[in-house]
Amino acid sequence: MPNLYTVAPNLPTETLVLKSYETFSSVRTLLLNLSNDLTGEHRDVALAIHQLSELGVLLVGQMMDREAPLTSL
Predict the structure, then answer these.
(1) Residue 34 CB partners (closer than 8 Å, separation 6+)
(2) Full-model pTM
(3) Rounded to an integer, what distance in angstroms lies between the CA atom of residue 55 and that of residue 53?
């Protein structure tokens, strides 16, 4: 069965990191919005996944800061 999703093999690392950050950020937002509509155990699971995605955002953000720090104006 062919892959439905692929990542171009020659993308620069900066592009991969940026897209990862954007993906984690989107997941984080979607999960937080979803958790507002849930209750009980389902809400707890959504918030736990949100917390993991938040960690992903922080980790990728730290990597971005190390690899391509913003210069002060």
Answers:
(1) 46
(2) 0.72
(3) 5
